[in-house]
Amino acid sequence: MKTMHVDVAEALQVRKDLRAARAIGMHWGTFEHLTDEPMDEPPAELARRRNAAGLATEQFDVMKIGETRSIVTRTGSPVEGGKP
Which pTM does this prediction carry? Predict the structure, then answer.
């Protein structure tokens, strides 16, 4: 899946390159047999690398399977359907 996905280290670099204030990892734990790592390893590795980089959980996190979150813009407006 390397041609279409990034690993945790690359995801952290993408966040840095984009100067993103917040990032959310996705597509982890979706398919068991597409990777050699345990299904719960990517979030654990992200937590380790995030902590080592001095980032807060709010700056780069993953969502639990089935979890939803409301995202609020910097102006305080909720984002609905991808449009503020």
Answer: 0.73
